[in-house]
Each structure stands twice: as C-alpha cells, then as structure tokens.
Amino acid sequence: MNVANTQIQMRKGLLEFCVLHIISRGEVYTSDLIDELTQVQMIVVEGTLYPLLNRLKSASLVQYRWVESESGPPRKYYSITEEGKEFLGTLSETWTSLVNSTIQITSKN
Predict the structure, then answer these.
(1) What is the pTM of this model?
(2) Angle, helices 3-24/30-39, rounded to nearest 10 degrees
(3) Is 43 helix (H, G, I), strand (E, B) or coil?
C-alpha cells in the first residue's frame, strides 16, 4: 500500500470542509484560497479547486460575484450562503466528533 496515496485521499476528504471554512471568514478570490491551502500543505491545484467551487455553488453553499479588475479580466469573489453556514456548522460538529474519536483510538496502547 502506498502511504502517499492514502495521505492524498485524507487531504481530499477534508478539502471541502477547509474551503468552506476559509470562505466563511469573508469574500475570497480563488488564488487566495490556493495560497492559504498551499501554505498549510493542503496542496491544491486550480484543476482540483474549480470543480469543487462549482459543486459548492450548485449546492447553493457558496455564491460569487464578479469584480472588475484594473489590471486584467474580472475576478470571481466567493462568499458563503446562509445554507452554506448551516452546512459548515454540521461539518464542524462532525469534524469535532471525528477528532475526538481518533484521539481516543490512537492514544490507546
């Protein structure tokens, strides 16, 4: 079994939660999402992030607005919807439960 593949799958499983959490802090541009995720080693490429953002928008969890840019094409800025806030709240509860369960299991000898 390849440990790198397992690590990638673990990160992918948490990516949606992390992206929603970042967006919940305020309006965000895609490159800012990529920068933050890269800094914390949740490595993401645009090819992974854009489909995820589209799925979140289709599910009405995020929305975006176009902002004109003086130095190039307009930019999409993402924000979380009320439905997205509720969804994130449920994911946060699940995350806390999973972390607690994992600590209980991994702390036993």
Answers:
(1) 0.89
(2) 130
(3) coil
Architecture of domain 3-106: Orthogonal Bundle (1.10)
Per-domain boundaries in the chain:
3-106
Q: How far apart are CA 107 and CA 53, in angstroms?
A: 36
Evaluate whether 16 touches 92 at the Cβ level (below 8 Å): no
With both helix axes pointing from N to C terminus, report the angle between 46-58 and 30-39 in degrees, rounded to the nearest 10.
120
- Tens of pLDDT, residue by residue over 75-105, are 999 999 999 999 999 999 999 999 999 999 9
Mention every residue, 6+ apart, whose C-beta is less than 8 A from residue 27.
Answer: 65, 77, 78, 79
